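Risk mitigation, structural track. In case the binding assays with pyridoxal-5'-phosphate fail to produce interpretable data, a predicted complex structure has been prepared as a fallback.
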Amino acid sequence: MEIRENIEKLRKQIPEYVTLVAVSKTKSVESILEAYNAGQRVFGENKVQELVTKYESLPKDIKWHMIGHLQTNKVKYIAPFVDLIHSIDSIKLLKEVNRVSTYINRVLNCLIQIYIAKEDTKFGFTFDQAEQVLNSKEYKQLRNVRIVGVMGMATNTEDAKVLKSEFQLLSQFFQKISTNNSDLRIMSMGMSSDYRIAIEEGSTMIRVGSSIFGDRN
Ligand SMILES: *Cc1c(COP(=O)(O)O)cnc(C)c1O
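Fallback model:
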């Protein structure tokens, strides 16, 4: 019941235009079903095997988002059903998503992951690199992959000023690149600890795990 209450509380806090991705990594099928029964339909996972297993055992109207680092050799396992990949962090990966989705006749929506944190453990492009990718001939030739926005993870800190400035930078970048590209409509930023600040700075998609399902072990 707690999961339902957490979701209802979150929904009341976030504007209607913000998509709530319930991050269910490490959580059981039963917990996900509890969220599902509270009306939640978008779930995020960060490991391919776990994503596939959960997809197979849960209702088929769930939209599954891949939010973690994705290895090129595993794209094929999720391409047939995944709704959105948040974590495109190389041209090589983008090309592989295109190759696999061509083969299965899908056009896959993706976000380009941008490096905004002051930590060097996280994947992603710099702003310049991301812009280069979007404007590249290489990307424009890919028919079965569509970059529909950006994703960023802020520094793991409680310092609201740092969080705000990182989200602001991503937001400014997004505004700049989306003025002449109508495909770009999603800004995925904000997690349990920082989604309020992220929404203030223009996030349209938040990825929330522990505030819904409780702490992970
Ligand atoms: C785990 C994870 C989240 C959710 O984190 P919480 O702090 O539990 O809300 C969001 N985004 C990514 C990429 C994650 O891996």
